[in-house]
Amino acid sequence: MTEPSFSLATPDGDDRSRQMCDRCGFVLYENPKIVVGSVVRHERRILLCRRAIEPRRGYWTIPAGYMELNETPEEGARREASEEANVALHIERLLAVYSVPRISQVQLIYRARLAEPSFSPGPESLEVELFAPDEIPYGDLAFPSVHWALRHDAEAEAGAPPVPFTNPEGETATMMPGGETVRPGDF
Amino acid sequence: MTEPSFSLATPDGDDRSRQMCDRCGFVLYENPKIVVGSVVRHERRILLCRRAIEPRRGYWTIPAGYMELNETPEEGARREASEEANVALHIERLLAVYSVPRISQVQLIYRARLAEPSFSPGPESLEVELFAPDEIPYGDLAFPSVHWALRHDAEAEAGAPPVPFTNPEGETATMMPGGETVRPGDF
Predict the structure, then answer these.
(1) CA nearest B65 in A: which residue?
(2) CB count, 10 Å around CB of B94?
(3) Which of B3, B33, B99 sits opposite A73 (nearest CB)?
(4) Do A7 and A99 lie in a common domain?
(5) Are A18 and A27 in contact (CB under 8 A)?
(6) What is the pLDDT of residues B161-184, one digit of tens each?
(7) Does the record's keyword annotation contain Hydrolase (chains A, B) (predicted)?
(8) CB contact under 8 A, B70 and A104
(9) Could you tell me if B49 and B124 lie in one domain?
(10) Contact (CB<8Å) A34/B34
(11) What pLDDT score was predicted for residue A187?
(12) What is chain B's percent helix, strand, coil content, to nearest 5?
């Protein structure tokens, strides 16, 4: 079997260049991807997963991942939590819509709580733990948007109106709150 | 040049079957697509476009379309309105997040108003018109979610809290409000 071979070209009837197969002309229409995830509470503690896979292996994150075909965003958020932490969720509402245009990603993040107080690491997690708000390992979070989601969830918990948050003003997820630059591939 | 030829198979290290090229093994990772659009007001009237393309050629819709790579949802909604109706928008807020899992679509619909009172049909529109609320051609709207968005925008205008709407209870965009079934391909 040969290797895939694509080149940029503008298909007939289109107004943008796309990746096209050099052999058969197949057009790869690439569109932004949707990440679905949740800030999961049990009583006053928050569920985090330590990543077993790259990017950012060993860092803590909320359960989240790419939405799959033929599911709703809420179903996707429940599936990701089930896969990464073996938990069942009650989803409460949409917490935030974040946008990371650099990597063509839109993130739909929900507020949720554990349906039952049981959890364990799935194949993509090294550990799963419940953290009291003042115990969250802020220095070891995986992505800028995990910081945003935890901060926005805390604001929601403190009584902010139930309007979804968006990216903090001017932020595009290129930098961690401590000033550390996100390396390409770390998204 | 040969024709594209794909078959369903499960790639190494994956847990789902995907479309794979029979010649080079290229894996087509298909994910849900994001539609970005807006209910656009000018004074108390609402901007609608009559579609010049299939599906639903000749029917009225709000400016909306597939989000492209490297843009934010708001930029995408402004681009679609510019392409379809030659308008510049002020986007006010997120009106609704709809989900159509049958066709793996998530729709982010914004409330917007015209930055200037000028508009004209772009290449994908036969006509563009401002309609007073009681003149909207409800019998000739293109898609179920156009009905939803116009109803939800009216509720927002009437003072509903600024929390994004979701699909009407139990609805998955398979039927127009009059009971007409949406044909496959009409989405």
Answers:
(1) A31
(2) 22
(3) B99
(4) no
(5) yes
(6) 999 999 998 888 887 777 777 765
(7) yes
(8) yes
(9) yes
(10) yes
(11) 47
(12) 20, 35, 45
Q: Do B106 and A67 touch (CB under 8 A)?
A: yes
Order of strands, sheet of A27-28, starting from the edge strand that comes earlier in the sequence: A6-9, A18-21, A27-28
List Cβ neighbours of B184 (8 Å cut-off, separation of 6 or more).
none
Query: The tokens of B134 are what?
Result: 């009681």
Q: Min CA distance, B24 vs chain A (Å)?
A: 5
| Cα-only R_g, chain A | 18
Mark whether A22 and A89 lie in a shared domain. no
Token code pair at residue B136: 């909207």
pLDDT, position A185: 53
Asked whether residue B12 falls in the same domain as residue B40, the answer is no
What does the pLDDT read at residue A80?
98
Enclosing domain of residue B75: 33-186
pLDDT tens digits in sequence order for chain B, 187 residues long: 688 999 999 998 888 889 999 999 999 989 999 999 999 999 999 999 999 999 999 999 999 999 999 999 999 999 999 999 999 999 999 999 999 999 999 999 999 999 999 999 999 999 999 999 999 999 999 999 999 999 999 999 999 999 999 999 888 888 777 777 776 555 4
One domain for residues B21 and B58:
no
Backbone angles phi, psi at A47, to 5 degrees: -85, 125
Give the domain CATH number at A44. Answer: 3.90.79.10
Q: Extract the residue ranges of chain A whose pLDDT is less than 70.
A: 1, 183-187
* Overall domain count for chain B: 2
Domain identity same for B49 and B138 = yes
Domain CATH for A2 = 2.20.70
State whether B74 and B16 are in the same domain. Answer: no
